[in-house]
Structures are given as structure tokens and as C-alpha cells.
Amino acid sequence: MLSHGLDAARLQFAAISGGEVDMSHSVEGHLSSQVDGRSGKSDAAAKSNERKACNERGEKVRAILKARLGEDIYSSWFNALEFESFDGRLVVATVPVKFLKSWIQSHYADDLLECCAAEFEGAERIEIVVRQPGMSKPASQASQAVGQSGASAAELPSSEQRRPLSRPAGPAFLTGRTHASGFEGSPLDPRYTFDTFVVGPANRMAHAAATQVAETVLADDRAFNPLYLHSNVGLGKTHLQHAIAWEVKRQSKAQVLYLTAERFRYQFVEAIKSQDALAFKDKFRAIDILLIDDLEFMRGEKTEQEFEHIVNSLLDGGKQVVVASARPPAQLDGLNDRMRSRLQRGLVTEISSLDPALRLKILEKRAQEKRATDPSFEIPNAVVELLADKLTESGRELEGAINRLYLTWQLMHAPVTLDIAETIIRDLVQGIEPRRIKIEDILRIVSRHYAVSKQDILSQRRHRSVVRPRQIGMYLAKHLTSRSLPEIGRRFGDRDHTTVLHAIRKIDKEVGENPRLKEEIEELKRQLHR
Ligand code: ADP
Ligand code: MG
């Protein structure tokens, strides 16, 4: 594995497990001398200078890493990496969660060391330390040599090892919403806690990050901020956000606010209507943690600006922000570049699709929950396996399946047969998969509705009678298909993506102001969904 023709002995890759002593690994002598060496400069100013100098070189290492590994891999694993110190031979870098440390060690050890060697002259080894919130330097340190034995990538996140995070929501928790500074948040589902969240390869990083956020909300030295979760629908983003909110409420008196982007927008628009926009902004001051869900629905120019302003001031004030979205930051059309890059500065992590083993565990967990209220509830293993095999798209299907099986059980009080399970699967898969709308359909419906030809829509003509349907078409394409702006531009007569963006914004704004247009668009959507 030590490729690239470098001397294997020089490539020893060590890591300190900050705060979480891993007893299975011996403490190595070289490490304690390293720690002693650093304690000579223990005064805070010198330390912070050292860190600064280190991070300047680190910036260059990051650039080299990014070029070498590509943007995707870099932002998944290295965004949150920081450089702490260099003593001529040893580079110490830090990451916010233990899982990230294990992952980098087991997958990118060689790359990281080689990239470091380019900037930190003489670097022989790298230690990765888990940043401990509220601590200026890692405390108890045990090291493990990686490269020979290797840390397992499947190593559990720190919080899983330390203690179970949340208990099932007791009566005191069933308030169901977060309130902060007179704001009413979006409803919280009492079932969505860390306890009911099943961890697997698809979501391990997101889960580790979420638990860490919940634990460190009130710490001065936050692990990472903001936390940005993204994935396709139904893979547990909302579940994790609610789990953070419940956990923070349980542990502390911190002011938590959970809002969907739609609710944020609604409250903001209401505030403007009652000429209360300033008060709206002000209300966010007292919040310790803001969780925004479904960020891709943050629409409308003023709303976006306001959102950006609020997020910036929360982050500047050291408050925690957690965002969930169907898209990664780079693909958020609405927000400006500065905001997109700010949202990338903490930890960006994607939940990938659930593998069969994880689906099985989620189903079992859900069945167990039903059994907690009705111990007689039974599902044959073969049925659970069939469901795990067939329901591949999202956790929502899995939840739906167990709910239906339970209903069937209540009606019949006999074990659910495979036949019944098949029917349930068919219903679910059909019921859940929305009809996929194509740009071709949109062109057809729009041209029919406004009595303009498709050629005209695609042409360069700028007459209002053509421009309007064209813009509405682009707007519908953005909202009803997963096509990107440049793709939509191409399909609407080879137009630039900025033209598309302009059209979408214009129609978006008008829809907010003009109920007749809103109704017209609803009608077009109905026709498209038929
Ligand atoms: P998203 O917000 O990503 O669209 P949700 O958080 O709403 O997804 O999840 C959809 C459903 O799937 C919920 O019922 C949720 O509890 C369940 N789910 C998703 N992932 C998991 C998981 N890892 N463990 C348990 N339930 C899960
Ligand atoms: Mg969601």
C-alpha cells in the first residue's frame, strides 16, 4: 500500500486519539517526546502563532491535496482538516471527529503525507488528532501506528463508544417544537432521535458529525461550523436534525431553533407584511443553534438575502448552524457564491443510499418500536428480507412498509404472508415514485396553454407573448425536474444559464405577489402531473 516509491519506514503514519484512549494500542515513546517538545512553547501566544504559521503552509497542502484527489473527495474528507504544529519531522493535523481521522488514515495516509512533504520540508510522519471541543490542545493521548496494522475504517464514531446519546423522548419532550426568542420552530417528530437512528456506512460520517454537534453546542471551541448534510430524499437528514434538536434540548438550556426553509420564508414574509423585518432579524440573536431543513426551498431574493445575513451573523457570533439540503452547496442556485463557500467551510457530508444490510436493520428497528407498544406484533424474517431487498430508494418506504404491515397485522392478527408483503411493496413503490416529468412535457403543456408554438418558445423572439411562456416553462423545468440551469438553458433554445436564473427569479417573485399567476402555475403543474 505504500506506493509511490517512497521509503516505507519514513512513511510511518501515526495518530493520536484525543481524549479517547484506545487501550488496544500502545503509547509510543516518540509521541511523548513530541508532546514534551511542544510543552516548552506552551504559552498561548506562541502556540497560536505556531498554529497560524502552520495553517499557512497547510493551505498550500490543501490546494495540492485538492488537485490530487479531486474536489469531491477533498470536500468530503479534508474540508475540516487543520494543521496544528510541525517540529521539523512531525506534522500534527486535527480533525473534528474520530471517524474522519480513521477514514483519512486508512484511505489517504500516503496522499496526505506526500502532499505534506512538499510544504513541510523534512516531514516524516503525520499525526492526526481529534479536536476536543473546549480544549486548546488534545489531552490524554494514545497513538496508533497506521500503515502496518491500520485503523479500521469501520471504527465507530467517538460518541457511539462513549455513551448512548439520547433516550426515547419522555413526556417532557413531547412539546414537538423548538421555541426561541418568541419564534415557533417547525414541528419536531418525537420518534426522530439518535436512539432510533441506525448507523451504517451510508450515514456514519453524518451521524458522527451530528452527535458531535449536539454535544458541543455550548462549547467555546466548536468542532465544526456549519454542518451541512445533503442527500437524496428519505435518507435521514431530517431525522438527524431532529435528533440534534432533541438532544440539545435534553442536555442543556441552549436556545434551539429548527426551521424548514419554507417556514423561514413564511415567517420572514409575514414579518415584512407587518413591517417587522428588523424585529425578525433581532430574534435570531439569542439563538445558540439554528437548524435549517430543506435549504433547496429557500427561494425568493429577499428571503435569500435575509437568510444569508442571519447565517453570517450567527456564524460570526460563534453560534452553531446546521443545514440539510437535497443538494450540495455548490449546486444551490439561489444563494450567492460567498454564501455557498461559507456553507462549505465547516463540514459538508453526504448521506449515500442505504445498502441492504442497513435497510434490514432499519426495518428491524421500526418493527421493534411497534413491538414496544404491541408485543404480539410479528413479522416473519422472510418478509423483512423481501422488503429490505425490494425497497431500495429511501427510509420513507421502509417506514411506510412497517406501518402497513402493522395495520394489516391489527386487522388480521395472523402473520403477514409473503403475498401480502408483495402487494404492500407494489403499492409503496408505485405510490412513492412520482411520475417523472420531462422538459419535453413542459414545452408541450406550456405551448398548448399559452397558444404559442414550441418553435417560438425555442426561438430568439423577444415578444412578450413568447417571452412569458418561455420563462414560465423554465421556471417549471427548474421546479419539476432535476435538470441543472445550464441543461435547462440548452433545452430552451440554447440559452445561457444566467438567462434561466433570471427567468426563475422573475417568475418566483411574481408568484409571491400575484395570486392569479400562482393559480395559473398550479394549473400547469396539475396538467403535467396527470
Ligand atoms: P430526508 O430528510 O433525508 O428526506 P428523513 O429524515 O425524513 O429523510 O427520513 C425518512 C424516513 O426514513 C424517516 O422515517 C426516518 O426515520 C427514516 N430513516 C432514514 N434513515 C434512517 C436511519 N439511518 N435509521 C432509522 N431511520 C431512518
Ligand atoms: Mg427531510
Structural class: alpha/beta
Q: Bound small molecules, which ones?
A: adenosine-5'-diphosphate, magnesium ion
Roughly what fraction of the amino acids lie in strands? 5-15%
Shape: globular
**Rg:** 26 Å
How would a textbook summarize the main sheet? 5 strands, mixed
Q: Mean of the pLDDT scores?
A: 80
Helicity range: 40-55%
Q: Which residues form runs of ≥5 with pLDDT under 50? A: 1-41, 134-175
Number of discrete helical segments: 21
Work out the number of β strands: 12
The N- and C-terminal alpha carbons lie at a distance of 56 Å
Side by side, the strands of the main sheet go 2-3-4-1-5
In short:
The protein has 530 residues and is of the alpha/beta class. It has helices at residues 29-39, 44-69, 71-77, 98-119, 158-162, 204-216, 237-251, 261-273, 277-283, 301-316, 337-343, 356-373, 381-390, 395-412, 418-432, 439-450, 454-458, 464-480, 485-491, 497-513, 515-529; strands at residues 13-16, 82-86, 90-95, 125-130, 143-146, 177-180, 183-187, 227-230, 256-260, 289-293, 320-325, 347-350. The strands form 3 sheets. A 5-stranded mixed beta sheet has the order 2-3-4-1-5. Strands 9-10-11-8-12 form a 5-stranded parallel beta sheet, with helices on both faces. The chain has a two-stranded antiparallel ribbon with strand order 6-7.
Give a structural overview.
52% of the residues lie in helices and 11% in strands. The protein is built from 21 helices and twelve strands. A five-stranded mixed β-sheet has the order 2-3-4-1-5. It has a five-stranded parallel β-sheet with strand order 9-10-11-8-12, sandwiched between helices. A two-stranded antiparallel sheet has the order 6-7. A hairpin with a 3-residue loop joins β2 and β3. Adenosine-5'-diphosphate (ADP) binds next to α7, α12 and α14.
